[in-house]
Amino acid sequence: MFGWGKQQVSTLALDGQAPVVLAKNETVLNGALRHGLAFPHSCKVGGCGACKCQLVSGQVRELTDSSYLLSREEIADRFILGCQSIPQGPVEVRLPANPLANQHIEGTLIHQRPLTHDISEIVIRLDTPVRYLPGQYASLRALGTTLPARCYSFAHAAPEAGTQEIAFFVRRVPQGGMSNWLLDSAALEQRLDIQASLGDFHLREGDGTLLCMAGGSGLAPLVALLEGALDSVAAQRPVYVLMGARTQRDLYYRDELAALKAHWQAPFEFIPVLSEEPADSDWRGRRGWVTEAIPADIRAGTQGYLCGPPPMIDAAIAVMTANGLAREQIFFDRFSDQSVK
Ligand SMILES: Cc1cc2nc3c(=O)[nH]c(=O)nc-3n(C[C@H](O)[C@H](O)[C@H](O)COP(=O)(O)OP(=O)(O)OC[C@H]3O[C@@H](n4cnc5c(N)ncnc54)[C@H](O)[C@@H]3O)c2cc1C
Ligand code: FES
């Protein structure tokens, strides 16, 4: 009954729900969204990993190599990127288990605080509390606009019972729809729709060093993760926070990190690295690429936590693994947008 010539009809069964019929060459993600099924996503171009899911049965054609986003174990367990996978016939797909994923809340943008020339902290007051793990992110949609939803990482830890005020560090992306909307003063008192809490970037158990690296607004989930660890045994683990920025005017949150360091119970080193600081400036810190500040000999037990633009993440993973850190001990969120992969 169905079919395009000899081609078999493609269907998608998501998390045990009734199968839906996909259009020709439609990806798992697009098909799910077209049928109104909730499916975590952000960039839609294979750059962020937000649409990671497990292929339970059936075959897909992958549009890109997913090995830079998925671990060897995940690939062996048939994890795929929903936005880059076109079903070849009936497929069954499972989303990663995330008990916090189905929170749908509205809120009001109540505060904007500039942190640098292009990054601000924004605060949203929610109608009801949201729960999340430090390191996770939310998908924000501006109500009353046609802007597509975009993902932003919670910038602070929250009590386990949840919080009704949430903050994000947002970087203004040139020509970027949502980031400019969020940072425009006209957005104050405007309403947003928030889907939370997404992603599997969070602190893992262990007692080794936390080797953290941030670029741009990527500091947000690391601040949340470290704040969340403060009152636990994790605060006895040595910490490096390597922060990559172009110039001194791109650095921020240094006082807050110093306060965090003062309460930490183990060595805590914050290392800003500037790539475009004028040679004749008063900067006495490190210069070059932030990846050059990665320790050459990484100790056993170390875990890597990386957040920021995809090129930084990819370069850091390459250096960290070359310096002895197992790929499985590196956790990251690629802040990809529609322009980069
Ligand atoms: C897991 C995750 C967490 C994130 N957390 C944060 C965070 O905490 N803080 C933060 O600031 N950002 C974060 N981001 C990035 C954020 O989600 C947005 O991608 C970013 O704010 C840009 O969205 P926008 O709507 O402003 O830009 P868009 O309107 O999507 O445009 C982005 C750029 O892409 C260009 N562009 C758009 N479409 C195309 C196209 N088809 N071809 C070529 N270029 C195009 C635009 O001109 C612009 O330069 C995160 C992303 C992910 C995936
Ligand atoms: S939405 Fe698929 S990788 Fe970003």
How does this structure look, described?
The protein has six helices and 19 strands. It has 341 residues and is α/β, with parallel strands linked by helices. Helix 4 links the parallel strand 14 and strand 15 (239-245). The chain has three domains: 11-94, Beta-grasp domain (Ubiquitin-like (UB roll), Roll); 103-198, Beta Barrel (Elongation Factor Tu (Ef-tu), domain 3), CATH 2.40.30.10; 210-334, Nucleotide-binding domain of ferredoxin-NADP reductase (FNR) module (Rossmann fold). Strands 11-10-13-8-9-12 form a six-stranded antiparallel beta sheet. A six-stranded parallel beta sheet has the order 17-16-15-14-18-19, with helices on both faces. The protein binds flavin-adenine dinucleotide (FAD) and FE2/S2 (inorganic) cluster. Flavin-adenine dinucleotide binds at residues 42-43, 48, 50, 137, 150-153, 168-171, 173-179, 199, 217, 220, 333, 335-339.
The largest pleated sheet is described as: 6 strands, antiparallel
Q: What is the strand arrangement across the widest sheet?
A: 11-10-13-8-9-12
Rough outline: globular
Q: List the total number of helices.
A: 6
Chemical compounds bound to the protein: flavin-adenine dinucleotide, FE2/S2 (inorganic) cluster
Number of separate strands: 19
**What percentage of residues falls in helices of 4 or more residues?**
10-25%
CATH level-four homologous superfamily name of the largest domain: Nucleotide-binding domain of ferredoxin-NADP reductase (FNR) module
Task: Quickly give the structural class.
Answer: alpha/beta
- Report Rg: 21 Å
